[in-house]
Specification:
It is built from 25 helices and 30 strands. A 7-stranded mixed sheet has the order 5-8-3-2-11-14-13, with no helix packed on it. A 5-stranded mixed sheet has the order 16-17-18-20-19, covered by helices on one side. Helix 23 (about 840-845) runs parallel beside helix 25. It is α+β, with helices and mostly antiparallel strands. The chain folds into 4 domains: about 10-310, Immunoglobulin-like; about 315-455, Neutral Protease, domain 2 (Orthogonal Bundle), CATH 1.10.390.10; about 465-555, Aminopeptidase N, middle-beta domain (Immunoglobulin-like, Sandwich); about 755-890, Peptidase M1, alanyl aminopeptidase, C-terminal domain (Zincin-like fold), CATH 1.25.50.10. The structure holds (3S)-3,7-diaminoheptanoic acid and zinc ion. (3S)-3,7-diaminoheptanoic acid binds near residues 124, 266, 300 and 303. The site of zinc ion has 4 residues, from helix 3.
C-alpha cells in the first residue's frame, strides 16, 4: 500500500458486477498460524450488468487451489487484489482454497486471534482477507459454514444463522455446521471459535415464535452480562412495537471480544461486540457505561432490519443503514428513559437524551464538517472506506433522518418505513430508494430539495433576526441560511431546514403562534420550513415584544447565529419552555463567558452569568439529570472550533478559571446539591438514580476545581466511601481534575483495586491522559502519558487501550496536547507511525486528531506541519493514514 498510489474511488463509477454469487459453502480448518479455508460458491451471470469476467478480491492470503466447475479456469488474471476469471454459460461453481495466518493479523480485520480465540471482522472489506470473493455489499448470497477446530482451545464454534449439526473429529478436534437462511452481503459474515460461556434466555416474539438469546463471554465475566441481555430483550420489544419488526432467526447471539476495532458489529445473528459494550456490573461500570451498553446493543440489533435485511448497494450509501440505525437507537433510548421517568418526567428525560446526542454532534461532527475531511452524509469519493465511518455518516446522518421524521410526522415516517421494507427486503439499495419510499408513502411529499442534505457537506449557518412592531402587535422573524464552502464544494444551494420555533412573552410563557393571514392562533411551538436563502415570517396578535426560541429540540443540524444579549440568554435559561433550548441558552451563555475569558484573561466572571447559573443549580423543580447537563460546560473540542484562531492553551486557562470560580463562589450551593443528591440503598441502574449521581459527581467536580479544603475533603471522602463505580470514578475524576495533593494516592488505590480488570484500567489510563494542569508547577500530562505507555497493562495492539491512553490525550486533552514546544506533536507522529505498522484503522483514528491544524495559531501550525509531513513521508504508510494526513496537508 504505497501512499502515492492510494486510488480514489468515485461514487459515480458504480457498476453492477457481471457475475454475482447465489450460495457460498465455507469450510474452515482453524489453526492459529495456518487456517485453511475452502470456499465453494455458485456464481451466476447477471445479464443486465453486461458481459465480463467473474471478479473476486483477495488480500493478505495465500491461494492454495482454484477450480472452475472442477477444472482449471479458462483464463485468469490478477491485478493487485483483484482476480478476474473468464467463464462461459450462466452458472459456474468456483472452488477456491486459501491459507491464512490469524496470529499474524494485527489489523483486526478478517480472521484474527484475541485471547487465544478466533474472531472475525468483515465490514467493510475484511472478507477478502479470508477468501477470494466479490466482496461488495451488492452481492447477497446464502451461506453455509463448517468450522473445525481443536476442542480444548475452542470448545465453542459459532457462525451466522442456525446450527445444523455438530460433532467430534479425530485428534481432539470437533466441528459445527451453521446455515444462514437469509441472503447477505459478505461484510455480515462472522465466525467465532473460542473458550466462552453464555448467558441464555428464551423469549417469544410478537408472532409467537420462541427464540434463544445468548450473550457469550469469557468464563469470569458471566456476572456482567445481565444488563446486555435485558437491553437485547427491550430492543426486540421496542422494534416490534414501534416498527412492527420482528427477529427473523431461531437464535440471536452476542459475543464479547477484547480486541476489537470499534464498538460492535451487526453480523447476521452473531453480533460481535467490544467487551466494553457488553460487560457491566455495579462495581466496574458507571451509569454512563450502562447507558452505552443499552444503546449499542439496541443499535446492532436494529441493524438486523436496517442494514441486514435491506442493505447498502455500495459503501457510499453507508448512511442508509447507519444514519437510520443511529436514529432508531436514539429514539429507543429516549423511549426507555421516558418510560422510566414516568408521565411527569418524560419530557425532561427525552430532552436529556437529545442534549447528549447534540453534544456528541457538536463536539465531533461540527469540527469534522469544518475541516479537510468534510464530506456529505453520502460521500462522493474515498480512498479508504474505513475512514468514512464518521460522525457525519452516523450522527449527521441520524439528524437527516430525524428531520424527515419531523417533516412527515410519526405516522408518515412509519408508513415510509413500511413501504421501504415492502419494496426492498432482501435487496441492496441506495439512499434515493429510501427517500423515494418516504415520499411515496406520504402522498408524493416533495423531497427533491431535501436530497441536498445527502450531497452537501458543511454545517449550515442559520441566521435569525427579529423586529417588533409595537403599533401592530406583530413580530417579523427573518431567517437566512448559508453553508460555507468545504473541500471540493465551493457553492452551496439552500437546504430544507425545519425550524421549530416558540415566541416567549415577558411573563416567560409561550405565546400562541399566528402567522399573518391565518385565521386562528396555533400552538406555542411550530415548525417553520426554511427553503430559500432568506425568508420572512410575520407573527401577529402579540401583546408585547416576544423573545424568540429557535430550533427547539435542535430541529436541524445547523449553527444558529442569533444576536441575543446576555439578558435574553439569562431569560431563556430561566423560562424557555423547551428544555433543550433552556440547556442551549445556558451553553451559549457559558461559551460567551469562556471565550471572552480566553481572549482577555483579566475579564471577570459576569455577575449576571453567575446568578443565572446559580438559579439553575438550585432549582429543585428541575430533574437532576437535566441540571447536570445544564451546568456542565460546553465540550472543549466544540469551543476550540468556535475560536479563531484556535488557541488551546488560552482556552484551557479560561476553562480552569471559570470552573474554579464557579466552584469556589458557589461552594455552599454545590455542597447542598451534593448532600441532596445522595442515592440510598444498593446500586441499581435506573435513569432517575443515574441523574442524581451525575449531578452529585458534577458538584464534586466543581468543588474540587474550586480548590477549597472542604470541597477537596468531600471528594476524598466520597472516593473512600463509594459503593459503586459511578460514585468511585466520579470522585476520582474530581480529584484528578483538581490541584488536590491526594490525587496520586487515589489513582494508586484505584489501580490496586482493579489491577486485573482490563476495562476498568482503561478508565484509569483515560483519566490520567485527559488530566488538565490545575497546578501551574505540575509536570505536563505528556510526561505521565509517556510513563503509562510502558505500563505492563498497556498495549498498542489493543484498540481500547490505545483509545484510552492516546485517544484521550490527543483528542480529549487539547490544552495539554498542543504544547508550545511541539513535544506533543512529535509524540503524536511517533505514535501514529508505530500504530500504522500494526493496525491502520486505529492509526488513522489517532491521525485525525490533527486534521484541523489550520484553525490553530500560526505558532502551533508551524509546529504541526513538519510532523504531518514526517508521517506522510514514512515508509510503507497505509492508505488509511495517507488519506487523512494527505488531505490535512492538501487543504
Ligand atoms: N457497522 C459497524 C461498523 C463497522 C466499521 C468498519 N470499519 C458497527 C455499527 O455501525 O453498528
Ligand atoms: Zn451501525
Amino acid at each position: 500500500m504505497r501512499t502515492e498510489h492510494a486510488p480514489t474511488i468515485q461514487r459515480a463509477d458504480y457498476r453492477p458486477l457481471p457475475w454475482t454469487v447465489e450460495t457460498v459453502d465455507l469450510h474452515f480448518c482453524l489453526d492459529a498460524e495456518a487456517t485453511l479455508v475452502t470456499n465453494r460458491m455458485v456464481c451466476v451471470r447477471q445479464s443486465s450488468a453486461g458481459d465480463g469476467p467473474i471478479q473476486l478480491w483477495g488480500e493478505a492470503l495465500e491461494r492454495v487451489a482454484l477450480t472452475v466447475d472442477g477444472g482449471a479456469p479458462a483464463g485468469l488474471r490478477e491485478h493487485g487484489a483483484l482476480l478476474e476469471i473468464d467463464a462461459e454459460g450462466e452458472r459456474v461453481v468456483i472452488e477456491v482454497q486459501t491459507r491464512i495466518n490469524p496470529r499474524a493479523n494485527t489489523t483486526l480485520s478478517g480472521l484474527y486471534l484475541s485471547a487465544g480465540g478466533f474472531f472475525t471482522q468483515c465490514e467493510a472489506e475484511g472478507f477478502r482477507r479470508i477468501t477470494y470473493f466479490p466482496d461488495r455489499p451488492d452481492v447477497m448470497a446464502r451461506y453455509t459454514v463448517t468450522l473445525e477446530a481443536e476442542r480444548a482451545r475452542c470448545p465453542v464454534l459459532l457462525s451466522n444463522g442456525n446450527l445444523l449439526e455438530q460433532g467430534e473429529l479425530p485428534n481432539g478436534r470437533h466441528y459445527a455446521k451453521w446455515e444462514d437462511p437469509f441472503p447477505k452481503p459478505s461484510y455480515l459474515f462472522a465466525l467465532v471459535a473460542a473458550k466462552l460461556v453464555a448467558l441464555e434466555r428464551s423469549v417469544t416474539t410478537m408472532s409467537g415464535r420462541e427464540v434463544l438469546l445468548q450473550v457469550w463471554v469469557e468464563e469470569g465475566n458471566l456476572d456482567r452480562c445481565e444488563h446486555a441481555m435485558d437491553s437485547l430483550v427491550h430492543s426486540m420489544r421496542w422494534d416490534e412495537e414501534t416498527f412492527g419488526l420482528e427477529l427473523d432467526l431461531d437464535r440471536f447471539m452476542i459475543v464479547a471480544v477484547t480486541d476489537f476495532n470499534m464498538g460492535a458489529m451487526e453480523n447476521k445473528g452473531l453480533n460481535i461486540f467490544n467487551t466494553k459494550f457488553v460487560l457491566a456490573k455495579p462495581d466496574t461500570a458507571t451509569d454512563v457505561d450502562y447507558e452505552h451498553v443499552e444503546s449499542v446493543v439496541a443499535h446492532e440489533y436494529f441493524h438486523n432490519w436496517t442494514g441486514n435485511r435491506v442493505t447498502c448497494r455500495d459503501w457510499f450509501q453507508l448512511t442508509l443503514k447507519e444514519g437510520l440505525t443511529v436514529f432508531r437507537d436514539q429514539q429507543f433510548s429516549a423511549d426507555m428513559l421516558a418510560r422510566a421517568a414516568g408521565p411527569d418526567g418524560a419530557a425532561s428525560a427525552r430532552a436529556v437524551k437529545r442534549i447528549d446526542d447534540v453534544r456528541v454532534l457538536r463536539a465531533a461532527q461540527f469540527p469534522e464538517d469544518a475541516g479537510p475531511m468534510a464530506h456529505p452524509i453520502r460521500p462522493d469519493s474515498y480512498q479508504e472506506i474505513n475512514n468514512f465511518y464518521t460522525a457525519t455518516v452516523y450522527e449527521k446522518g441520524a439528524e437527516v433522518i430525524r428531520m424527515l421524521h419531523t417533516l412527515l410526522g410519526q405516522e408518515g415516517f412509519r408508513n415510509g418505513m413500511d413501504l421501504y421494507f415492502s419494496y426492498f427486503d432482501g435487496q441492496a439499495v441506495t439512499c434515493d430508494d429510501f427517500v423515494d419510499a418516504m415520499s411515496e408513502a406520504n402522498n408524493g411529499f416533495d423531497l427533491d430539495q431535501f436530497m441536498r442534505w445527502y450531497s452537501q457537506a458543511g454545517t449550515p449557518r442559520l441566521k435569525a433576526s427579529g423586529s417588533w412592531d409595537a403599533g401592530h402587535g406583530s413580530y417579523t422573524l427573518t431567517l437566512a441560511q448559508h453553508t460555507p464552502p468545504t473541500p471540493g464544494q465551493e457553492q452551496k444551494a439552500p437546504l430544507v431546514i425545519p425550524v421549530a420555533l416558540g415566541l416567549i412573552g415577558p411573563d416567560g410563557r409561550d405565546r400562541p403562534l399566528q402567522l399573518e393571514g391565518e385565521a386562528q392562533p396555533g400552538a406555542g411551538t411550530r415548525v417553520l420550513r426554511l427553503t430559500e436563502s432568506e425568508q420572512r415570517f410575520r407573527f401577529v396578535g402579540l401583546d408585547a415584544e416576544p423573545v424568540p426560541s429557535l430550533l427547539r429540540g435542535f430541529s436541524a443540524p445547523v449553527i444558529l447565529e442569533l444576536d441575543e444579549d446576555d439578558g435574553r440568554l439569562a431569560f431563556r435559561m430561566a423560562h424557555d419552555s423547551d428544555p433543550f433550548n433552556r440547556w442551549d441558552a445556558a451553553q451559549r451563555y457559558a461559551e460567551r463567558v469562556i471565550l471572552a475569558r480566553a481572549a482577555d484573561p483579566a475579564a471577570g466572571l459576569p455577575t449576571a452569568f453567575r446568578a443565572a447559573f446559580r438559579s439553575l443549580l438550585s432549582d429543585e423543580a428541575l430533574d437532576p439529570a437535566f441540571r447536570a447537563q445544564a451546568l456542565a460546560l460546553p465540550a472543549e473540542p466544540y469551543l476550540l472550533e468556535r475560536m479563531s484562531p484556535a488557541d488551546p492553551a488560552a482556552l484551557r486557562a479560561a476553562l480552569i478559571d471559570v470552573m474554579a470560580t464557579l466552584g469556589r463562589e458557589l461552594a455552599a450551593d454545590w455542597l447542598q446539591v451534593l448532600d441532596r443528591m445522595q442515592v440510598a440503598g444498593a446500586y441499581r441502574y435506573h435513569p432517575g438514580d443515574a441523574g442524581r449521581r451525575a449531578l452529585a459527581n458534577l458538584a464534586l467536580r466543581y468543588l474540587a476545581a474550586g480548590g477549597d479544603a472542604v470541597g477537596l475533603a468531600r471528594a476524598e471522602a466520597h472516593f473512600a466511601q463509594a459503593t459503586n463505580m459511578t460514585q468511585r470514578f466520579g470522585a476520582l475524576a474530581a480529584l484528578v481534575q483538581s490541584a488536590s495533593p491526594a490525587r496520586t494516592a487515589a489513582l494508586q488505590a484505584f489501580h490496586a483495586r482493579y489491577r486485573d480488570d482490563a476495562l476498568v484500567l482503561d478508565k484509569w489510563f483515560a483519566l490520567q491522559a485527559g488530566a488538565w494542569r490545575w497546578d501551574a508547577a505540575a509536570a505536563p500530562t505528556l510526561d505521565r502519558v509517556r510513563v503509562l505507555l510502558s505500563d505492563p497493562a498497556f498495549s498498542l495492539s489493543n484498540p481500547n487501550k490505545v483509545s484510552a491512553l492516546l485517544g484521550s490525550y490527543f483528542r480529549a486533552n487539547p490544552g495539554e496536547f498542543h504544547l508550545a514546544d511541539g513535544s506533543g506533536h512529535a509524540f503524536w507522529a511517533d505514535q501514529v507511525i508505530a500504530l500504522d505498522a500494526r493496525n491502520p484503522q486505529v492509526a488513522a483514528r489517532m491521525a485525525r486528531a490533527l486534521e484541523n491544524w489550520r484553525h490553530f495559531t500560526p505558532a502551533l501550525q508551524a509546529s504541526i506541519r513538519p510532523q504531518l509531513e514526517r508521517v506522510l513521508a514514512s515508509a510503507g504508510l497505509s492508505a488509511d493514514v495517507a488519506e487523512i494526513v494527505g488531505k490535512a496537508l492538501a487543504q
